[in-house]
Amino acid sequence: MSGPTETQEVEINLAPIANTKVAYTINNRQPVRSSFIGAEPLFFMDTNETFEEDSIFDDFTMDFLTQEMEELSQKIETYDAISKEFHGEEHSITDMFDDNAEFVTSQLPTVSSTAALIDVLNQSRFAQTLLDYAQAHGVEIAYSTHVEASEYDRNACKIFIHPSLDMGYQILIASSELRRVWQHKNGALVDPMAFYPDHGILLNRLQEADVNAFMIRIAWELKLANETQAWSVVEQSDFADLGRAFAREACVDFRASNNGKALLSIVEAWFLSERCRKHDRTLIQRMLAGKAPKGFAHSQDLSRQALVEAIYALGKNPYGNNYLSPHIQLLVEDPIFSEVRDRSNTNFLWFVKFESSFAQAEQELQIGKSQDEASSEKQQGSETHAAKIIEFPSFDANQKNKPSKRYASGGQCDIVPFSRGES
User: Is the distance from CB of 219 to CB of 172 less than 8 angstroms?
Assistant: First the structure.
């Protein structure tokens, strides 16, 4: 027979601790994160407990580990069964993980030709017109993995598009960049930072709303030509509200897509959404980060005149009427289009305007001070080089040999005339 089980008595004495907490687990589970014991300054605990010495490799521990492994295997089999229902019998969880890892680590295929994309764009009349306009100005479409989605490089005269994007999304971003080329060549793609801050906010909004409006228009024309890839992306993306606004006007009157009414509905829906806050924040951060280029920011009146001209240039089309020109006054004066409604953006914009006005006032003071100093130096120089005329004293012949007193240059001196000899 085996002897009695050896036991060991352990005494635990905790020193006075102001704030003590304990975290524990039960059967590899953690019911709570921590259990509060005490917060009194003289709190301590005395316990005398007996613990049996056991090995971690005893039968209980091995049974527990075996049970855990069986539960884990059952979970994996369940997940595999669910994945096979959606992805086929030949794909399991591990296979899907391997496929994802291979996709992430592998290099993207090199796509050198944009012929397929251009063929799709040519099915839209407006997109084809923008393509011809871009080619006439030496701008080409090219694939590049160095851009996140798309970018119009003015210096290189190229529109770069990422090749890994779906064709529908490529059509949309190519349409928006082609419209941006039109803005650039017609003088509408000016830097909003060159304007007065309030006018720059409005112009920045209109530039982006115009790009989105013509992107939706091209997607609608392709849909009418049975090319539905781009319109499917519009319906299932963040542009769904803009697509519904355009489709509503175009379905009521088929002429609305050409006379500008449908485009105006997109612009209105754009301004009523949360897109204003996003683009305002980006522009205000630029204002806070860098110095504004030379422009009309110093004069609110000149900035307003330049804003009107920029909006007129922004509404031009290759064909059709200028869809923004009849509404320029409304766009400039209506708070729906020009007001910054986000509190954070409003505070930062006020700081930008205050800093701009303070710098302008300081500059005017410096100019006035320099002008005053220049005029003062000029006056002092004229006084220094001025000729002094001293009048010779006159004397009476009857008062001979009598000195006469004169004052010259603020000092007193005696002038004694020489006596003439009598003949």
Answer: yes
Task: Return the ∠ at Cα 227 (arms to 223 and 233), rounded to 5°.
Answer: 75
- For residue 108, the SS3 value is coil
* Helical (H) or strand (E) element with 48: strand 46-52
Cα distances (Å, whole numbers) of residue 336 to 148, 169, 265, 341: 32, 30, 14, 9
Residue 131's alpha-carbon distances to 109, 141, 209, 318, 401, in angstroms, are 26, 9, 20, 11, 110
For 118, counting Cβ atoms within 10 Å of its Cβ (0-12 exposed, 13-18 middle, 19+ buried), the class is middle
Confidence class of residue 14 from pLDDT cuts 50, 70 and 90? Answer: very low
pLDDT beyond 50 at 409? no
Is the CB of residue 143 less than 8 Å from the CB of residue 117? no
Both tokens of 262, joined, read 């449908």
* CB-CB contact of 280 with 344 (8 Å): no
- When mean pLDDT is compared across 213-227, 242-256, 295-309, the lowest value belongs to 295-309
The one-letter amino acid code at 299 reads: S
